[in-house]
Design brief:
Elements (H helix, E strand, L loop, with lengths): L4 H26 L3 H5 L5 H27 L10 H25 L3 H17 L12 H7 L3 H14 L6 H25 L6
Helix pairs in contact: 1-3, 1-4, 1-5, 1-7, 3-4, 4-7, 4-8, 7-8
């Protein structure tokens, strides 16, 4: 039971961060009050940072609450507190940025739900939340390495137990890389006004 606690906490962090940002941004688009923000002298990076910060706060709060509830059932070890905090923050940043892209491109509520239901959810359940990827056949292990959630869950699990299916340094590198790429994509989308000015 202790093994799945980090996966459950990370799943809650990811879902909450994502849902907060995509619903907030698309809601602002749907109600057409995003235009008030866009015509203000606020730089694009500040707008992006505001939405991401909202997603991170919600993700971390929900993650901490899930962890506290889990203490009624099991007492997982905490080997590297810095890794727990770092991977929780970076994962929520990555999915907040991804949610912002979804919110920018979404034209209706079905498109908001589509990504979360048919892409994010399978990635979560195939990302090692409930199992070690070493329990998969060799081909399954190789395919799993293309799932970014594997790196988030394993880096987070390393913080608890001191071991991971994937090298924690690689996990951290993947998250930093995704953060940079998604930040640049968001900045370009805001600069071009895609999904916001047309």
């Amino acid at each position: 039971m202790a093994f799945i606690v980090p996966g459950l906490v990370m799943m809650a962090v990811i879902n909450s961060s994502y849902a907060n940002v995509v619903s907030s941004f698309f809601g602002a688009k749907f109600q057409r009050n995003i235009e008030e923000v866009l015509v203000s002298p606020t730089p694009d990076w500040v707008i992006i940072a505001g939405y991401v910060l909202g997603g991170v706060v919600r993700g971390v709060v929900v993650g901490v609450l899930v962890f506290l509830v889990s203490l009624f059932f099991v007492h997982p070890a905490l080997m590297h507190g810095w890794a727990v905090i770092l991977f929780m923050l970076l994962s929520s940043v990555v999915f907040s940025l991804a949610a912002l892209i979804n919110g920018i491109y979404a034209r209706n509520f079905d498109e908001v739900a589509f990504f979360q239901n048919f892409i994010l959810t399978p990635f979560i359940y195939l990302g090692g939340v409930f199992y070690s990827i070493h329990s998969l056949p060799a081909a399954g292990q190789k395919v799993s390495l293309y799932n970014p959630l594997v790196y988030m869950v394993n880096g987070f699990r390393y913080g608890f137990f001191g071991f991971s299916d994937v090298n924690p340094g690689i996990c951290l590198g993947v998250l930093v890389f995704l953060t940079i790429i998604l930040s640049v994509v968001n900045l370009l989308l805001f600069k071009k006004g895609i999904g916001t000015k047309n």
